[in-house]
Amino acid sequence: MSELAMKAEKLDASDELAARRAGFVLDDVVYLDGNSLGALPAVVPGRVEDVVRRQWGELRIRSWTEGGWWTAPERIGDRIAPLVGAAAGQIVVGDSTSVNVFKALVGAVRLARLTGPERDEIVVDATTFPTDGYIAESAARMTGCTLRPVTPSEVPDVLGDRTAAVLLNHVDYRSGRLHDLPSLTAAVHAAGAVVVWDLCHSAGALPVGLDEHGVHLAVGCTYKYLNGGPGSPAFLYVRADLQDRFDSPLPGWNSHAEPFGMHSAYEPAAGAVRGRVGTPDILSMLALEAALEVWDGVTVEAVRAKSLALTDFFLECVGEYVPEGRVECVTPRAHGERGSQIALRCPDAGDVMKRLIERGVVGDFRHPDVLRFGFTPLYVGFADVERAARVLAEVLA
After folding, report:
1. In the annotation, is 129 catalytic?
2. Which of 72, 192, 309, 323 is the most buried (most CB within 10 A)?
3. Which residues have CB under 8 Å from 53's CB, separation 6+?
4. 314 is catalytic
């Protein structure tokens, strides 16, 4: 056994989160793609069966009240809230990330114009995940704004009296770079604009501190580090003191003050509920609720500590095993600038990842030359990390 393999054994033996792995359906594959789709929590299949057979099959329409279907978006939002540093009553679950980005960004422009009607510019992360850019471009056209794409580091320099809204990613999906949410949020505040944070690659992986840092609006998916399942509904955060002024561009019947009043005129509900649109996706919604039980008794701080330990150890193993010059790490090594993934640049990355997967190490490939490895601390161990680096070295040899 190599020195690194023995080190992995010791690290696993002292890992306070190691027992959480038993809460997931896993095999002998090293699964490092939880930053795309989290593993299946073991409680979910039985819960979904109950939802289908008993709640839908027997209670039928009564489940909207007796089964708590109607209140699920807010109830599950309150389960997510502590994981992103938010108090209860500020998060609603439903719709996709793209739809929630649209709601939040147009809502942000409308909020900004309540006190600054001349504000006509949307600043967007130029390195953003494509859908955020698409939505931002459409939102700009719909609101009569100019779209200004810049890198996150350039944001403070371009803010001004005309800035209405700023859309940023907390963690870069390609490189795993963690952007400075506290300072960037403060800069947007100082400019009198409204900030929207995309938390898809940070929710459930590291502390976010939405309330602590005064974030206005945020969105995030639930199928990555929150393990909600493919296509599980996203979430929308609206800071409590902004909720009475949040004007959603999608005023559906679910967000009406009297949804069953069937009024022709729209009157928004109070609170985070006004972020709802139409009928919730109950099957995926309740699968997510069950999946979130794996977080019972777990702190985000403990997850973050293990995440950094896992990624540090992976970089150590890669440095020891992989031939020099064969890969280049594009993820920042500084803890304060790193999410929960490691991205390695490799000229033949697509073929390399294919061979890794064939040998039981599952990560993913991002065009044109990036190998991405996501580390979900609730079920990834240090022996997994050592094995992944060793197999990578063998594939590259």
Report:
1. yes
2. 72
3. none
4. no
